[in-house]
Amino acid sequence: MKREINGELLNVPEHVAVIMDGNGRWAKKRFLPRNYGHAEGAKALEAICENCDKLGIKHLTVYAFSTENWKRSVEEVTGIMNLFRKYLVDSIERSNNANMKVNLIGKREGLPEDIVQKMNDLERATANNTGLQFHIAINYGGRDEIVRATKKILNDAADGKVKAGDIDEKLFADYLDTKGVPDPDLLIRTSGEERTSNFLPWQLAYSEFYFTDTLWPDFDMDCLVEAVRYYNKRERRFGDAK
What we know:
6-stranded parallel beta sheet; 7 helices
């Protein structure tokens, strides 16, 4: 979709995925606790939802907590879980005011029961909203998602619901957490790291990647527009020989 941004006509990606990296380093630079950085990162997340909506982006998927993040210190993980508790509750009113639909992806087993309940409440409360489709990956790992999808297919095959000949890319995608969601056009990763870190390995097959040194709490509208501008410079190819 073409849209005029700051006097410039740009093609806006339909779906943007973000690895929100650098909260801890942002806090360390300011001699603050890591969890303070995560709190500031949550504020940046609220802002990017508003900014994506303003730009006309239809889907936003963010990597909030990976299956590997459990290896961090007990203090940091506890702080992140407490932040989730508050964020998930506060998001109901904020999302409904913005007509934003929220979808939580990842493995719910292993998460505290009260957080899973809050995730369910948020999804139900925003299910009928028609604005930005906001997907939050919590306790998510791309390889884990693929393994879980494979197990579901095998279970359905055992029940006679699926035959080997039925299995193709489309069917497999329907067993992923992102069923019905278009693959990301653009992946953004902040803080200078240049890897996908087990985030959406199936879905990112043909996405454009944008890496920036900006730490996540500092990622604002200007940074988002710069990422979109970079996206416009790319010649998108899907395996063809242009």
